[in-house]
Amino acid sequence: MSRFWSDLIQELSPYVPGEQPKSAKLIKLNTNENPYGPSPLAMSVLGEDIGPDLRRYPDPYSLSLRTAVAARYGLSPEYAFAGNGSDEVLGLAFATFFKTRTGFEGPLQYPDVSYSFYPVWARFFEVEVAPVPLSPNLELDLTPYREGTGGIIFPNPNAPTAMALGRGEIESLLRDTPDRVTIVDEAYVEFGAESVASLVSQYDNLLVVQTLSKSHGLAGLRVGFAFGHPDLIEGLDRAKSSFNSYPVDRIAERIACAAIGDEEYFEARRDQVVATREWTTERLVTLGFKVLPSSANFVFATHPRVPAKQLFEGLRARDVLVRYFDKPRIDEYLRVTIGTDDEMRGFVSALESLLGSPGPSDNG
Predict the structure, then answer these.
(1) Could you tell me which residues come within 8 angstroms of residue 123 by beta carbon, excluding any fewer than 6 positions away?
(2) Cross-sheet strand order for the sheet of 152-155
(3) Per residue in 261-302, pLDDT tens?
(4) Could you tell me if residue 294 is inside a domain?
(5) What is the pLDDT of residue 361?
(6) What's the rounded Cα separation, in Å, for the pair 334 and 299?
């Protein structure tokens, strides 16, 4: 701890990302990355002669990217915002909508088992919070959110549980809380949930945040975006321009636009991930696991007789890396990213070795 740190920095408990190992031999299933990588069309941008353009600053508003992402939901670009990954977009949203606001009283509500960056941002921006417990089955129930008076944020599907709400449930909440900004974090929505992005033209209190990291295999590019009423987007632009005028560089914007335009590649890879997720779930159930219903590119599973930490350490010793959260209510669960078919066969084989249960060697 440095004597030069501010009181805030000294008191923070920063978000801890998943391990990024150096060893290539590991089966890496711990950070929800897409196993198939970006579209060839997106990668082809790197072969273009873009050098001369790099002496110029990029478009501070990333209009080409905003136009491309908005068009997917039938929206015009004034309903879209782009940033350096969805984490930056969410951080700006906390500062814009949840920090002290005249006439806006009440703590921020979010699920008590959810994306662990939410409480970090809240502390960083000095936002009062009131976490809302998930149900005993770890489901997200929106009923208690109607009783609050402050902002609302939740992922759909939720993370790390992978379970999703229906579009109608979210729209009902929006109708019942018209004066409260509600952020729906859709980082994993493409893998089986219903997006509510198209509703932003009907509800001026809705902000939907998405990313290209999971669905389009571009976690290393750092491109995220938000959809909302133009008033909300203007607020984000004001925050962005007060912090980082050019969050999306020229190369990133061109790659992102190319990836978004290659819908055929995206759909094929998404369907492949979903199919492998279903096979993995079936194998886990066969091995005695309870697996929560997943609408994401990962599964959340617990075993009734073997502690999750023991499984995590046993898998790590067998060169398989998954995510373990040593936190109340979920410390007996493992979060497992869906990799390639070969990677998931390796994962299941390692589990069989740990549990002493033989199983089939392929996914049929």
Answers:
(1) 8, 11, 12, 13
(2) 80-83, 224-228, 206-211, 182-185, 152-155
(3) 999 999 999 999 999 999 999 999 999 999 999 999 999 999
(4) yes
(5) 40
(6) 8
Among 242, 262, 282, where does a domain finish?
262
Residues 72 and 216 in one domain: yes
Residue 300 Cα to chain centre, angstroms: 15
Angstrom distance (rounded) from CA 39 to CA 270: 12
Q: Residue 164: left (phi > 0), alpha (psi -120 to 50), or beta?
A: beta
Report d(CA 19, CA 21) in Å as an integer.
6
* pLDDT score, position 363: 40
* Whole-Å CA distances, 342 to 27, 165, 280, 300: 10, 31, 11, 20
Tokens 């950070």 sit at which residue? Answer: 31
Supply 364's token pair: 């049929």
Q: Are both 152 and 242 inside the same structural domain?
A: yes
Query: 182-185 and 152-155 as β-strands: parallel, antiparallel, unpaired?
Result: parallel
In a domain, 31, yes or no: yes
Q: What's the rounded Cα separation, in Å, for the pair 142 and 25?
A: 42
The rounded distance, in Å, linking the Cα atoms of 90 and 310 is 34
Query: Alpha-carbon distance 22 to 220, whole Å?
Result: 15
How many domains are there within the chain? Answer: 2
- Whether the pTM exceeds 0.85: the reply is yes
Would you state the structure tokens that stand for residue 313, as one six-digit string?
């350490």
- What residues have CB less than 8 Å from 99, skipping those under 6 apart? 125, 126, 127
Contact status, residue 308 vs residue 331, Cβ threshold 8 Å: yes
Same domain, 175 and 324: no
Q: Please check whether residues 248 and 307 belong to one and the same domain.
A: no
Show the tokens assigned to 293. Answer: 């219903």
The boundaries of the domain holding residue 31 are 7-37+264-355
Low-confidence ranges of the chain (pLDDT < 50): 359-364
At 17, list the tokens. Answer: 């990302």
pLDDT digits 0-9 by tens, 135-158: 999 999 999 999 999 999 999 999
Supply 259's token pair.
């990836």
Strand partners, 301: 291, 334
Element housing 27 (H / E): strand 27-28
Give me the residue label for tokens 């976690």.
Answer: 219
